[in-house]
Amino acid sequence: MRLQPRQELLSVWKAISRWCGSGQAFSWGDRSGRNSISDAELLLCLLLPPTKLPGIRFDRPDETKPDVCAALASFGGAVEIPQRVVRLIGEYLRCYTDPGTGLPEFSGGSYLTTAPDDDREPTPEQLALEVVDSYATSVVLATAAIGFLRGYRPQVQRPSHREEIDKVEVDARKRLTAAMAGLQRSFTLSVFRGDSRAGRALCETVSPEEGYSAELVARIRNSLTDVMAGLRELGSSADEVETLLENRDLLFECGWSWGIVQGAEPVKTPTTVYAQPGLAEPYPYLYFTVVAVDGIRDLFSRETRLQGLLDEEQQSLARILNLQWDLAQRYWSTIATLGDDRWPVEDLPWRTTDEEESDYYSLLVVSLVRHALLDQGAPDSDLARIARVLEDLADRGRIRRRPLAADPALKLHHPGTWVALVGADLAGSDAPPLGWRLGELGTLLLGRALAVAAQANDHRLRARLLRLADEAWRHLERRRLRDGKGAGLWDEPANVYPTLPRRGTPSWYHTTRAMQCMGTAADLIQGVPPPGSMLSDIATELLVEAEDVFDEEQLRGSGEGGPALRDSLSRQAIGLRRARRLLPTRPGTAAALTLDVLRELDKLAAARESEVGD
What we know:
The chain is mainly alpha-helical and 614 residues long. It has helices at 5-20, 36-52, 66-71, 80-95, 124-127, 132-152, 159-186, 197-206, 214-223, 225-234, 238-246, 286-297, 302-307, 312-336, 359-376, 380-396, 441-455, 459-478, 508-526, 533-555, 563-582, 587-613; strands at residues 112-114, 187-193, 250-256, 267-268, 273-274, 350-351, 357-358, 417-420, 434-438. A hairpin with a 5-residue loop joins strand 6 and strand 7. The model has no long low-confidence stretch (mean pLDDT 91).
């Protein structure tokens, strides 16, 4: 694989260290300035890599490697690095806490923009709106921070620093709880008639040739029976769910809106009531649904469970989020793979129920399908279909094909797809329409290709996906900034597409996503690769022959010979045992070990024949 995670992660740390400066004069901002999401993304660039590669962790100063210290040199030495990171986490948590209420705030800030053809700037009230992206990013950040603090605390002797760590962990837990409550209140259900504009659009997405029909509506509903039953368990929107279940002419969508939805019920915990009024329309957005699904998954990861990172209050919230997460994932994966022949997700580009279509939406849907296929243990034939979609998207997005003159596909990279956030115009005010810009096509494609490759059991499919990942990484490598303090960070699409405007400064939004791809690559490398069936057969036959020859030598009494002969046979026995142990997972290595054994056993046979001849 072209991407080497350890070296690349340390390279990015060096670039961050250079851009942000010394621990005494730390610079948070990127090209967008500062907001609750970009600052969290910067911290994630520091906290996430050690969770994937323990060899670069810095929470145990006595074990910190020299190359890690060199990469984070602006933070100080091995002792100072974790101290500085603790202070940065604490600074972030204080900065994004409302001093009046004491509650964490999750504003979108400079990530919220007006429409491309609108010269007006968002109002301060709009920039303060809370968004799902901030909730989801805070879930990932808070769990990573708590895990880091727990690993670092036993190494600290100074009482004042221990108190500081304890205070930061309390604040991180507070933010995690608030983020989980925000996600819970941002989940929504949208119900519509099958013959409505939204219903017809959904039918045409599922079956373009057939279009709307009562029979197709019935098929869609039948495929979603378990999802509809699960919606009833949520308890909220009970009347709407009952209407959906009773009226066979109705279809629906579920997932996450851009923020807390209008009329969302308060979330009560033993310590706090989260009852901020919701402004977002009760309509799921693909982007925010994917972001929420990815963030919530961290709550159920093996590391989170083993370390016991969630307290009782958070575990209660997690149970509801788990159900929401499962329903959203099952809904979108079912719709995207409905039918026996061509799946809807294979018909590019994906078309939403508000009749917007984009290759970017197709890639988002692939993300949800990929999660579902992993949970279902899907066969390689299904993964191969997803691989074809990813390859097509790489070509259509001009990631592995050169762009045409005035190519509209370049808009996917800059300025990106703009999505209007309905309700964020603050009805009754003079505020402009507000939206969110989607623009990380390259990192999303690379991450999904690596993730699907990790799921594949067929070595040919795996190799095909890794070739695609190599091409996507080559594309992303070229998009790194080349000059100035930000050299080595992302993102400069003009390096690949000269007709696009140059940015010149880094973006934590893009850099974090590139680093997450490196983490996915690390997971892939550290996983057990699927053995090729042909190689496994060859290794098995070699091992059977080697064991037969070895048994013949034992039967001949060679084991009772001189010390040199006994040592040789002992080594061959060890080699055979190791080859047998490695055969299921590493047949190539097992074959190599077996060949060494056969070679040594043949030397014994040749020596014996020579003695007989003499």
